[in-house]
Amino acid sequence: MRRSIVITAAVGLTMALAACGGGTGSGEEETTAGAEETTEDGGSAGTLTIWADEFRAAALTDIVAQFEQDKGVTVEIVEKNFDDIRPEFITQAPTGEGPDIIVGAHDWSGELVTNGLVSPVELGDVAAEFAEVAVNAFTYEGQVYGVPYGIENVALVRNNALASDTPATFDELIAQGQASGAEYPVLIQMGEEGDAFHMYPLQTSFGAPVFATDDTGSYIPELALGGDGGTAFAEYLASIGQAGSGVLDTAITSDIAREAFANGESPYMITGPWNIAPFTDAGLDVSVLPIPSAGGQPAAPFVGVQGFYISSYSENAILANEFLVNYAATEDVQVALYETGDRIPALTTAAEAVSDDPIVAGFVAAGEIGVPMPSLPQMNAVWEFWGVTEANLVSGVATDPAAAWATMVENIQGAVDAA
Amino acid sequence: MARMNGRDAADRTSGAARPDPDEAAAAERAAVGRGTTSHAREMGRFFLVKLVILALINALGLFVVFSAWQVGHWGVLAAMVVILVVANWVYFSRRMIAGKYLFPGLVFLLVFQLFTIAFTAYISFTNYGTGHNASREDAVAANLAQNENRVPDSPSYPLTVVSGPDGELGFAIIDDGAVLVGTAEQAFADAPDASITDGDVTEVPGYDVLTFGEVLEQQNEITSLRVGFDDVDEGSIRTQDGSTGYLHRSVLTYDEATGTITDTDTGVVYTDNGEGSFQAEDGSTLLVGWRVGVGFENFTKMFTDSRLSGPFLSVLVWTFAFAFLSVATTFFLGLFFAIAFNHPAVRGRRVIRSLLILPYAFPGILAGLVWAGLLNRRFGFINQVLLGGAEIPWLTDPWLAKLSIIGVNLWLGFPYMFIITTGALQAISSDVYEAAKIDGARAGRVFRSITLPLLMISVAPLLIASFAFNFNNFNLIYFVTEGGPNFPGSPIAVGATDILISLVYSVAFESGTQQFGLASAMAIMIFIMVGLISWLGFRQTRKLEEVL
């Protein structure tokens, strides 16, 4: 008995320490040692490590095999939960044990750049082959930090069995939805914590973008969601919320909204391309349309861009660049990535290749007036206050919409200043 | 006698043997082929097993030492050497009998408890977090790299990496059909005799053209190589992929001697401001900072930052209320069931008891998520089915949410209390009950004067432990309500059901940027608070024993 404790203890301890030792080294020596071993044949060196979520990892397999064969190198794809990639990268990269490349969203760039974790990528002539919004999204303080592969934005999805022609304003759309006799006139997911991302097209239609923009269209850290436009939007939310006409409801989470729409309980839903597969699987005939305006101005959705970042701690910078610029930024790869997540390819030729699909074309059309999600590190705080305030307006907890919105602007300003 | 000694020796083979004077026993053992002398007896099977295990431990330990040495991690190396030396000494020495038992536990205490606490304390005195994530050296490199911009409208140059006669690296680029070659020391110059094939430089007199494999072996050197032109202001050529060169200009330069960064465009000098950032005279800082010690700043921030100190008090009060109510409700429900099902008249007690402890076997996180779904205002089972469509805001009204949290924790926690009180009840001697009966005590009096005081002796320490656990019951709060409903208009995202530990999480990780330093400081404060309460509680429990 005593021995078994000793064994367990010793093995546990050694493994723990081994893990500590392995996790905090610079990794420099290892790479050099590996390089020396392969000096003789002169044809192969280096191992490229990529962190990707399960879908992206599967889509990259073919091109990785091609790359390994062409260059005589080894590529290791490490599958991670998408939400874990950023925090783990932030803590692990400085130890030298992080990956060379990560797959991520463009709005991580602010935090990653502020921590000095990612290298600028020189896209060179390839830059022109990408959709402009995609490259802009990965631009932070004048430098491009990623190779984009997919663009996503929300749009109005219509169940053609319940509605056929869509009016030009959101109010008329609600009236049409109510007249259709379906349980919900229109579905917008929010939940008790709110969802400012899905609500943003309505907000911009009142002329209240989250941040001001400079001449070139990039964000400056100056809040613009206050003012008359913001107040009007707050009042509008309250008027169609639970205390008003009841169109919006904080009980509608993403799961509930998806299921309700798939069950044919609503003619319209504001959602993104990731939800199309469940709808078509349910046998629905859907169309994708631009979002009608609620406040008179264009309803511009946020555009999110997914792409690849290169770690500034990478010992394989040349290999990583070679892989991203000359392999990942090719039509085949971008189409393969599109097929795994239905995000529209960032590479223009790849996007054209898949745009015969009316659904893709619909999202592209809806996203044309879209703006990239801000990537400032303070966005985390902004999302939180923003969502909760919208939820309070919709649920009727906030009885004075104008005051609640003003408090939110103040709190967001406080969070932006404090960071 | 002989048999007894034989058993004795078997017990002792673990290495704590003393010489056995019993000749008969020795002869008996010799007969079964184990050896005849007392020393040889220790060299038996068990000793061999010990030897093998310790050899394995030493091998693993030495491997750790070696890897730590290779990556230059001296702390791990020193700790491992000390542990190995002590382990060998303890298990080969004949005198360290107590040590043989205590050593594994002590090592665990050291590695998993003391080290963690010490490391958290260390982090709490730094500004580790977004923007202060790594070392100063890394921050300098990152700031320089981020401010090295491609010259606008400059062309891209087909580039080949070459090495000079002394092995120094250089670039050969094609500019308007002509080949230019240069190194870090030598600006680009014409190489008229170089040959070009398919748009690539394939040969440069005086230089070796590197193959892709050779390029990969020197990736860091090549990506950090800058080759300039005669006109220094024009910028320099760098490459990221080893095959294309771009003209870049570096806006910032780092001066090693003074430790300052200078903006060459504006002439602004950024100096180390002692807080982990490069700061200009006008107060602006460069984007990337590094980790430095900040003293007690994280601790004082909890009280001086008005955004934090405002909700802090109400969260503190709720934390205590939650922890206390959780223990009280679960304890009394558990006790009630324990007494009820301890009565001999109840049929099927074993089955009922097994069913009652089921929630205890359910993973807490899953239970939290399931309950959150059940209590959903509009679609939850409780409102929709049990209450016939009533839209009761179980999780979104501040007081109902508190009630729901206590309720869910009651469901999760009472089986534990049921188990421990059942055990403790069965340990109370039936004599005292008989005596009470003879004295004519009624059931209520028996419970108050006999059952509860005797129960408390064994259960009170567990109640204190349960209090400490619930004080930090992050999973329940996070998965049932996420701390919500949020206080409307609060300057940080804090809600009516947030306890201290979930406040730490939302302040340090969800409200904007990540602040590991602040989170560690708050965790240390909670640790001290819980430690203090537990210590006071355990001191009080000694008084309970006076009833005996």
From TrEMBL, chain A:
Signal sequence region: 1-18
Name under which the protein is recorded: Maltose ABC transporter substrate-binding protein
Pfam families (UniProt xref): SBP_bac_8
Record flagged with keyword GTP-binding: no
Renumbered residue ranges of the record's region Disordered: 22-44
Family classification: Belongs to the bacterial solute-binding protein 1 family.
Taxonomic superkingdom: Bacteria
InterPro entries the UniProt entry points to: Maltose/Cyclodextrin-bd, SBP
UniProt entry keywords in alphabetical sequence: Signal, Sugar transport, Transport
Gene3D superfamilies attached to this UniProt entry: Periplasmic binding protein-like II
Key word Secreted present: no
